[in-house]
């Protein structure tokens, strides 16, 4: 979003638009994308739960051999092979003993809370790259500083992703800002 913002600023001001008007338009665009991203999260969550339910029902209703094969295929990498048929049968018996859910999947309060958090994250993430346009009169300099801030944010995100992956890896710390740098170069080359 931040690159879209600076690219919009470059194109709009080249056409004689007022920087302040473009700032508001770009922020409005990011608000719209926050709404879109939050909505897509809700739809994806409901769809995934419905898909999981359909898989569970298919396993419950299948014959024993097919049910065990389907269950084994759904388990995470390698764990399906680590369990013997007796262990899988215990899992299948538990699954068949669970009451069948009734009615269609619904939007939950957790879905809505997550959508609001996503919206807020998209909008708040726009703020740091906006600051240079409020503080620096030179549009070109403000755009480049804004891009640098966006890259620093990508580096921080990469650092955080690396910590999630586990210790001893620098892949995301390096890859995220590199990908961001390529995107900035492409954006600038295309007139942004």
What does the model show?
By secondary structure, the protein is mainly alpha-helical. The protein has one domain. Helix content is 82%, strand content 0%. It has eight helices and no strands. It has helices at residues 2-14, 19-61, 64-74, 79-82, 85-97, 109-135, 139-165, 171-189. Helix 6 packs antiparallel against helix 7.
Summarize the structure.
By secondary structure, the chain is mainly alpha-helical.
Number of domains: 1
How many strands appear in the DSSP assignment? 0
Largest sheet composition: none
- What distance separates the N and C termini? 13 Å
Strand coverage percent: under 5%
Radius of gyration: 24 Å
Poorly predicted regions: none
Structural class: mainly alpha
Series of secondary-structure elements, N-terminal to C-terminal: HHHHHHHH
Helix content: over 70%
Principal-axis shape: elongated
Number of helices: 8
Average per-residue pLDDT, rounded, comes to 83
Transmembrane segments: 24-46, 114-136, 142-162, 174-191
Protein name: VIT family protein
Keywords: Membrane, Transmembrane, Transmembrane helix
